[in-house]
UniProtKB/TrEMBL annotation:
Keywords: Cell membrane, Membrane, Transmembrane, Transmembrane helix
Gene Ontology CC annotation, any one: plasma membrane
PANTHER family noted in UniProt: UPF0104 MEMBRANE PROTEIN MJ1595 (PTHR39087:SF2)
Region (Disordered): 1-56, 523-564
Cellular compartment(s): Cell membrane
Primary location group: membrane
Mitochondrion listed as a keyword: no
Basic and acidic residues biased stretches: 523-545, 553-564
Protein name: TIGR00374 family protein
Coiled-coil intervals: none
Topological type in the membrane: Multi-pass membrane protein
SUPFAM superfamilies membership: Protein kinase-like (PK-like)
Amino acid sequence: MPPAPGGAGGSDGTGGTRPAKAAGGSVSSGGSGSPGGSAGSAGSSRAGPSDAVESDEPLLSARVHRPSDLLRLGLGLLAITVVLIIANFAHGTTAGLEQDIDKGTQQAPPLLISVTGLASSIVILLVPVAFAIERLIKRDGLRIADGVLAAVLAHGASLAVDLWVAQAAPDSVRDALTKQITDTDLTTPVHSYLAPVIAYMTAVGMARRPRWRVLLWAVLLLNAFAILFPGYSTLFSIIVTVLIGWSVAYGTLYAVGTPNVRPTGQTLLAGLRRVGFNPVSAKRVEDADAFEGTESGDHGRRYLVTLENGPPIDVTVVDREQQAHGFFYRVWRRLTLRGIIQNRSLQSLRQALEQEALLAYAAIAAGANAPRLVATSELGPDAVMLVYEHIDARTLDSLPDEEITDTLMRAAWRQVEALQSRRITHRRLVGDALLVDSSGTVYLTDMRAGEIAAGDVVLRMDIAQLLTTFGLRVGAERAVAAAVDVLGPDSVADSLPLLQPIALSRRTRTTLRRLAKERAQRERDAVIEASRARKDTKDHDESGRTAHGAVQKTDRKSLRAEKNAEKRAIDDALEEAREEDLLAQIRQQVLLVRPQAPIEPARLERVKPRTLVTFIAGALAAYFLLSQLTQVQFGQVFGEVNWAWVGGAALFSACTYFAAAMALLGFVPEKVPFPRTVVAQVAGSFVKLVAPAAVGGVALNARFLQRAGVRPGLAVASVGASQLFGLGSHITLLLVFGYLTGTEHTPTLSPSRTVIAGLLAAAVLVLIVTAIPALRRFVSTRLRSLFAGVVPRMLDVVQRPRKLVTGIGGMLLMTLLFVMCLDACVRAFGYDASYASIAVVFLAGNALGSAAPTPGGLGAVEAALIAGLITFGVPKEIATPAVLLFRLLTLWLPVGPGWLSFSHLTRKGAI
């Protein structure tokens, strides 16, 4: 029977209080529903009714993808990167280390080295075979198959690294990973026989078995000694080999999954008997939102257990795999948010058990209604269970809207008030965490993510979350009124700075995004309907005048009047269809009660995702540029520069702003001054340094057109049309010039293998994007939002051929001027490159710069242009300063005039 209202306790595992819904097949007490079911035999060893007990649950998956494997893969790749960076920049240190090893090698007895080499060659083959035989005897062949797959992939990875070191790696890296054997031969950078063995032994799990683990390390040390001291390898080569094998093994395990060892229902029944219960049956309760991956991770597997005597109980089983669910999401939240994510250990199940039990007892002491925790126990080394009293109740999500009364909401707020009086937070006040029984009593569950002795910020977050949860069901007005009745206006008003999506649960944010998309779609439908109705009215009026013979030649004033009337009709329809989002409605309702309430959102983000991506991309670009700059003698190069070509490059760069203005105005049917448009394009040079190139330019042009009298929707559509045609012309020119670069050195018109390989790579990339649903949705959403309303706008432009020619001509002229600028920069340093090759390099580099998250494509453009010029035969000593000169003329020098232009347009109210 349910506990008295004074009882409390809650955890993430109390989902068993929901109505039990069985799924899947029955599992008898002697059987197992998953590979982890072997533990169920512990229950069958007991005499009595255990043989008659059944557990009704879905079959567990045979394999699971562990986040820990993905984390180890990332750490391995990071370690390889660090080793290569050290080898590249600390060349003197690595050379000194090799000399010390060589001195030690000379002192080692030759007989010892020979015996060690022979023993390591034999043992490194025998140990994997012996372990495979042992696993096959124990019928664990799948684990051996995983190891073989990892070994094959590690062999391929080692060969790929060998090829990269031999052909493309910096000389310092090649010297650190190889040793000179003869005048023409070098040692292999990565040992293609050792990496597969390491990958195999890691993937099959030898490291988790003490005896085999000792043998594994002995083999590795023996082999390292055998190849390092005779001079067949370097220390860095061995380290990279070990890291490659280790990383490939964990990457393989994450990709194919590892055998599932989660405890089954039979293991649960045996554990219940050990703590004094006599279970009759257990039903697995479905978790309706488990797929949504909330911040607190997986809530555990829930069971409704019927006992021989007494009421049923709710049991939650938490194992190590479930505890790690959502690990990367929680790490990301902890890095990006300012101290509102509690510290939870992912290593100790006992700490998770103690955290949940503590919150259950703390909630009871606070006087909140919640299921009472009656027992806890371990289920082997990798799982724990928590036993709660069963409550016959329904979740708030399962209630129809008409049953969510003001009385019910006030009852829920009183439970939150009880928790907050003792500074306890729930951290997940969503619909499935609130239970309502037949008498209307509200219970709080799923408190695993909560905290005791919480700070003011997280306490207010609970209020903001529950306001949003109720607002989604009954509206902002009723939700705020119920909260104010219980908590008072001051407490509700203090939560307004936390009323922002990032402070809400992941599930709530998903719902708000879906509602925002539906709201935007309704606004678009209203505009389309208004436009269609206006057109039908206009056609009807024209047909009526034709019937009465009253058709006359329409003058400009009447056309302008009709267009203005159509604009007003569309604006009115958009205004009528515009809806405020739920969070804004809640703020307005709170301000009606407490007008002086703080509404400025609290800054919860420590770092924004775009900032982090920009920093990483900038660091990689800086590393590339520094590695290139260290190999260029700038004094000698700039001493021989041809300043006439530099002047020509500066002139070409200046002319690009006129071409950009033509490209924009060609897709704007309305009249916009050309000189001011040129000034706006110059201002874009300043904006590019504070925003990614593809974002800053679009926003500035859209704002400029709006201030010039173009309606907001049409302004965005015009910029989108310009971007769409620019993308098409960019791809077309890239294909044309790419084809020409392949035919310019051949007597036929057949393209080069490089061009064919590039086209095939692009085709494969397109296939990958279209085949993966997540990537396909991401690309389609971005393109749809960028080019929304473009097609109707293009119909207006097509009716004015002069405008269309101006726009397309401006795009082609702008591309031509940029190519001529880059060509002049290359010629300024005394190299005469093919014009088609220069065009391909610029078009490819510009595309990468637009996609890069760094401002102005900083770093990405330089890296792409330098690499492209070197690929087409331009010496590194020429390509690097030429690209730097090009970026100086097109990115850095225009910043000053761009800032002046931006300030001028701002003062004039033009942007």
